[in-house]
Design brief:
The complex is a heterotrimer of chains A (516), B (348) and C (338). With 516 residues, chain A is of the alpha/beta class. Chain A has 17 helices and 22 strands. Chain A starts with 18 loop residues before the first strand and ends in a 7-residue tail after the last helix. In chain C, the strands form 2 sheets. Chain C has a two-stranded antiparallel ribbon. The longest helix of chain C has 28 residues, at 310-337. With 338 residues, chain C is mainly alpha-helical. Classes of the chains: A alpha/beta (516), B mainly alpha (348), C mainly alpha (338). Chains in contact: A-B, A-C, B-C.
């Protein structure tokens, strides 16, 4: 199958782009978030920005909405170069943004949220009646029935999302940026949102729609720009870009040939799993997920962003309490109410955000490593200093933590060494099941390989391991079996040997077929 | 250079500077005399009079380490002092060791109960610490007034008076009490895992939860410790005046205690705490207080100086001032490493 | 079929009405609770004593608590932004004694009053600048304000200073209204409440105060001036402290540096009892006025019963606790909803 090349511009080519970004570069210290990116949007078109975490999507949005200055490159609106010092300046130019976490005020009324800062006034005082009336008009134009006088916080997230859009369009809007607007909406609410988006499209508004749901992108978007590692991969028309190609471009693999998918490989379910989960449901994120993990194997979890990989890991380890589902550990049904309880059963979790949820940055390597062990022993039975030191030094040696100074604050370590400290803490508990959520994200190649090898060794020594990574090759390299997650469900579980990266890619990117 | 980086360097330097200034301004300041085997003089007074503040600040350090605050310590002092003196007043033999022991034990137990109450509101009900302890701060003095019947109960009891004003060997009893408290708290925090787990909970509650730390008990313990220590402080304060004054006992002490903790280098944002730092902080507050008195300023006007100290300290800790300092430093060609806060700002 | 349709429609209508009501006015519930408590207290006291709701008592409620009401207005602004101002009691003492001393030294009232107000506002400005521009926690910044105000009060004078100025004497004269009476201090307090309520609800600044309390981050993203708003609420609170100093001096006929010790706690308590959330974003100036009346009524009842005045603080502390726990429950429920 030929690769779809950057499209030749079709009929829209006659129309001039309303937003154009040329060679946009943004750096945060040494980190380059956007590297000479070109980007454009046309009126009456829905444009999607695709990329994995850290690809530069948010930065690009911030660059065109005035939330971040460009280090180099130009932003053109209607062909004229502009700089927006503030988001308000961008809004005055007709660019409105609805952010991912609805940036509204839950304590205030719907009408106030729409008009705050621009309230209609009479005799110098805010005219609440007129404000409600005008809010009603804006909401009506979206065909939304929400009481403008009601408190925003009492509404569903979907309704809040619509109010955010109402605020965005209450000014004369030419460009509407929707950053992950659907991440917490259900199917009906998404349909409602799409109706509104199509309406804007007909009015000639340019819409930037960012979502990690491929189905939605294909349903609503005309054009896609793919970003990877801060650089532009290309711009394509959705009608000309196959899903599989889109995912390839996002994940950064050049596929020479695309092997036909081998159908129906029986998942090799272990006969006697250490942990077995059925019907795990936790909204939003996972719905009815089944998974089995045996001692001595590495189960790789593969899935796109938003497929529920982190949510599943957290539900299995007592971090989040699932709403529904049965968890069996060594054939005994268990309810995990807290991480503490999971730890006592030998189920340990290394979180995705190791800095905010894993480590205690102001404490030393030693304190971070002994933390969980000490918590398990209780406050009064302190691990003697000499024993702590011995233990920590042995872990520093075993995992090669650098600098090998137990008293060094964890805050000062590199990402790879921080992850090793996290691992040392968990391994010091002599766990039975180790769940690693993106353990290799943001760390250098050397440390990455070390951690991958370590995971293999641990499984060889009888540990059950769940390994989550956004990099499919890594999942294949480390995993004995691979569970493919789509839309919060374990779609299939396959032996890693039966897969290659291309097949896995196809599985991950496949649309979920409606159930017969 | 290394000593300058030690976290206690600046607090200690501030204290030493203050003492030197005091001594230069008035050479009598540092004079200590030995009379009848007991030491007298300003430094000794500071050691003796700092006992209530030291105890309260010690408890406050633990509470602040959990990212909390305990505003009720002054009220707890008032209640415990009122309880002790009321028991003595009602006993047949206020001068007897037995009645004094009962009075002291009950008063400290009352502090403990109030600490349990605060800890319950914060760690179980999840109410913001400022608000949770505000309840007791407000109601506590009322309770103390009820206990004393609205009067200033005065009692004569030699053994009770001994607690605050007596001498053991050559130094005041009150000094030994706070030294003992400091040692016990240090041992409890550092010889058990309490200290480390408290810091972990204070710095990163979510990471601590994931590591299986039972933060509820740890936070609760801090408030209980604060209550008990405030109870003891109340006993000493009442012993010093031998009058249960529900209005003035421990008045504003919560604020001085917070100031002392901050002066000792423990951040109000919780986490790493230093008991030695708090000791230095309390000494600084006391020395400042005596300096103000020495300068002939009426004690009532002392708060102006403390306001200035608070403002200077918070400004020195402020990221904005740090960045000014750095740009000035760069102008002068002195390299200053960016602090953690500044990095955060960049990331945000 | 059609009948079931109608019933269904009717029941949805009722449900809509209820949900419209709760959707709009849920934040008023604590204030309603305060009003209920106030009515219950007044009715209960009248039934118990038989001579409680006399014009004299009711009038005294406003006269005795005028300064508290003014402080509560300023504090409401601060707490709605999720801040706190511990300095109000000592600011009131400082401006009160400052005013008394200036008047005693023969400076005309027309100059003294603005000086008092400016002095209060200046301390508020200091706190606001520390909070906004130096990232100092409001608690600590206003603590510095507390120390400063108290110390300065003693710097002005260590003893009380009597005020015999005709203007200030006039301010406490009782103007009869039938059997009731009202003093100019009471009128000023009521005016302060009205102006405070108008500013909160009908100006962009007031709406921004609520917005900042809801989410500072979102407010900034919406392009509103967060910095100015946060500094201004402390200035307003300081200004109210100055005004309260004036009212208290007029009411007591003297400036006294020990005035208002612990008043900051009373003010915080009445604001919370009046329905303002200490976590910010919700609250009403009029609710705080109700809170003041609840406080004043409790005080009056206790003196009627001949009980210790210390009961006032115990009861107010308990009320505060109940309100905080209930608020906590409301907040955690609404968080679950999200």
């Amino acid at each position: 199958m030929p690769l779809s090349s950057p499209c030749q511009y079709g009929p829209v080519d006659a129309v001039k782009p309303i937003v154009e970004l040329e060679g946009a570069t943004v750096r945060f210290g040494a980190f380059t978030a956007l590297d000479g990116v070109d980007f454009r949007m046309f009126p009456g078109e829905v444009h999607s920005l695709m990329g994995e975490n850290g690809a530069g999507k948010s930065t690009l949005i911030k660059a065109i909405t005035g939330a971040l200055p460009l280090e180099s490159g130009t932003l053109l609106i209607d062909g004229d170069p502009v700089t927006f010092p503030t988001p308000q300046a961008a809004q005055r130019a007709g660019i409105s943004t609805v952010n991912q976490d609805v940036d509204l005020l839950a304590n205030m009324s719907v009408a106030e949220n729409i008009w705050l800062g621009r309230e209609p006034r009479r005799f110098g005082l805010v005219d609440n009646r007129a404000m409600r009336h005008q809010a009603r008009e804006v909401l009506n134009s979206l065909a939304v029935d929400i009481d403008p006088a009601s408190i925003l916080g009492g509404h569903s997230l979907a309704a809040q999302q619509l109010v955010a859009i109402a605020r965005a369009i209450s000014v004369d809007v030419k460009v509407l940026v929707l950053d992950e607007p659907t991440s917490s909406l259900d199917t009906d609410e998404v349909a409602e949102l799409f109706r509104v988006i199509r309406d804007f499209k007909e009015r000639g508004v340019a819409i930037l729609f960012v979502s990690h749901f491929l189905d939605q992108v294909y349903e609503i978007c005309d054009r896609v720009t793919v970003l990877r590692d801060g650089a532009r991969v290309g711009e394509y028309l959705t009608t000309e870009l196959l899903r599989i190609d889109l995912v390839q471009k996002m994940l950064g693999r050049d596929v020479a040939e695309f092997a036909a998918r081998e159908r129906v490989i029986e998942p090799d379910m272990p006969a006697d799993p250490f942990l077995s989960a059925r019907g795990i449901t936790s909204t939003p994120g996972i719905a009815d997920a089944d998974v089995d993990i045996a001692a001595g194997e590495v189960l790789g979890l593969a899935g796109l962003l938003g497929s529920g990989r982190t949510e599943l890991a957290r539900a299995l380890t007592g971090v989040d309490r699932p709403e529904d589902g049965i968890l069996r550990i060594e054939n005994r049904e268990k309810r995990l109410n807290s991480p503490r309880q999971a730890l006592s059963l030998g189920v340990v979790y290394s979180p995705e955000n190791r800095r905010t949820e894993g480590l205690v940055p102001e404490l030393s390597i030693q304190e971070n490593i002994v933390l969980a062990l000490q918590a398990q022993r209780g406050v009064m039975r302190r691990i003697p200093t000499a024993r702590q030191r011995e233990l920590v030094i042995s872990w520093i040696d075993a995992l090669g933590i650098r600098p090998a100074d137990p008293d060094r604050k964890v805050r000062t370590l590199s990402g790879g060494n921080q992850q090793k400290v996290m691992l040392a803490r968990l391994l010091a508990l002599s766990p039975r099941l180790l769940v690693l959520d993106e353990p290799t994200r943001g760390i250098d190649v050397g440390a990455k390989v070390e951690i991958q090898n370590l995971v293999g060794d641990l499984a060889d020594n009888g540990l059950a391991v769940v390994f989550i990574s956004a990099e499919l090759e890594e999942v294949l390299r480390v995993g004995d079996r691979v569970a493919v997650l789509r839309n919060g469900r374990v779609a299939e579980t396959l032996p890693a040997d039966s897969l290659n990266a291309d097949i896995l890619l196809a599985l991950v990117a496949q649309p979920d077929l409606p159930e017969a | 250079m290394k000593i300058v980086k030690h976290r206690l360097f600046w607090p200690a330097a501030a204290l030493v500077t203050l003492l030197i200034i005091n001594t230069i301004a008035n050479p009598n300041f540092a004079r200590v005399t030995l009379q009848d085997g007991q030491l007298y003089g300003n430094p000794i007074n500071i050691l003796r009079e700092s006992a209530p503040l030291m105890l309260v600040a010690l408890g406050m350090t633990l509470v602040i380490a959990t990212r909390g605050i305990d505003l009720s310590v002054g009220a707890i002092m008032a209640v415990s002092g009122a309880v002790a003196l009321t028991i003595l007043d009602a006993s047949e033999n206020p001068g007897g060791l037995g009645s004094v022991a009962v009075a002291v034990v009950v008063a400290v137990l009352v502090g403990l109960v109030l600490g349990v109450w605060n800890g319950f509101l914060v760690s179980v009900l999840g109410i913001q610490p400022i608000i949770a302890t505000l309840v007791l701060m407000l109601a506590g003095r009322g309770v103390a007034l009820l206990i004393t019947g609205g009067f200033i109960t005065t009692v004569n009891s030699a053994p009770y008076k001994f607690i605050a004003t007596g001498y053991l060997v050559v130094l005041p009893v009150a000094f030994f009490i706070w030294v003992a408290a400091v040692v016990i708290v240090s041992v409890l925090e550092r010889r058990t895992a309490l200290g480390m787990l408290t810091e972990a909970v204070g710095i990163n509650p979510e990471a601590s939860r994931l590591a299986g730390v039972r933060s509820r008990g740890i936070i609760w313990t801090a408030y209980i410790a604060s209550g008990v220590l405030a109870g003891i402080a109340g006993v000493i304060f009442a012993s010093n005046t031998m009058a249960a004054d529900a209005n003035s006992a421990g008045y504003l002490i919560e604020l001085y205690a917070i100031l002392a903790v901050v002066l000792g280098g423990t951040s109000l944002m919780g986490g790493k705490f230093s008991i030695a730092g708090t000791v230095i902080g309390v000494m600084t507050v006391q020395a400042l207080n005596s300096a103000i008195l020495f300068l002939g300023v009426p004690p009532a006007q002392a708060p102006v100086f403390f306001a200035a100290v608070v403002i200077i300290v918070v400004l020195l800790q402020s990221p904005r001032v740090h960045s000014y300092g750095r740009s000035v430093g760069q102008l002068l060609g002195v390299g200053v490493k960016p602090t953690r806060e500044d990095k955060k700002e960049v990331a945000a | 079929m059609s009948t079931t349709d109608t019933t269904a429609r009717q029941s949805t209508d009722v449900a809509t009405t209820i949900s419209t009501f709760t959707g709009r006015y849920v934040s008023l519930l604590p204030t309603f609770a305060a009003i209920t408590i106030l009515i219950a207290l007044l009715v209960g006291a009248e039934l118990y004593f038989g001579n409680f709701l006399t014009p004299r008592n009711v009038s005294a409620l406003l006269l005795d608590n005028a300064y508290l009401m003014v402080l509560a207005v300023g504090m409401t602004f601060v707490i709605v932004t999720a801040g706190i101002d511990l300095s109000v009691g000592s600011v009131m003492a400082f401006t009160g004694i400052l005013g008394a001393s200036l008047i005693a030294s023969g400076i005309p009232v027309i100059i003294v009053i603005p000086v008092m107000l400016v002095a209060g506002a200046a301390i508020g400005l200091l706190i606001g600048v520390l909070v906004q521009y130096f990232n100092v926690q409001p608690f600590i910044a206003s603590l510095a304000g507390l120390f400063l105000g108290r110390g300065l009060a003693y710097v002005v004078s260590l003893n009380s200073i009597r005020v015999e100025d005709p203007v200030l004497v006039w301010m406490r004269t009782r103007i009869p209204l039938g059997d009731f009476y009202i003093a100019p201090t009471g009128i000023i307090a009521i005016f302060t409440v009205i102006i405070g309520a108008l500013v909160m609800h009908f100006t962009r600044f007031g709406r921004t105060v609520y917005a900042v309390g809801g989410s500072e981050q979102s407010t900034r993203l919406m392009g509103l001036n967060v910095a100015r708003t946060k500094v201004m609420v402390y200035v307003i609170s300081g200004l109210c402290g100055g005004l309260a100093g004036l009212l208290l001096t007029a009411y007591t006929g003297a400036g006294y540096p020990r005035n208002g010790i612990g008043t900051e706690l009373d003010v915080i308590a009445v604001v919370v009892i009046g329905g303002t959330l200490l976590t910010g974003g919700r609250g009403y100036v009029l609710g705080s006025m109700i809170g003041v009346f609840v406080f004043g009524t409790i005080k009056t009842i206790i003196s009627f019963m001949g009980a210790e005045q210390s009961w006032t603080h115990i009861i107010v502390g308990v009320l505060l606790l109940v309100f905080v726990v209930v608020q906590r429950a409301i907040v955690s429920r609404s968080q679950q909803k999200e």
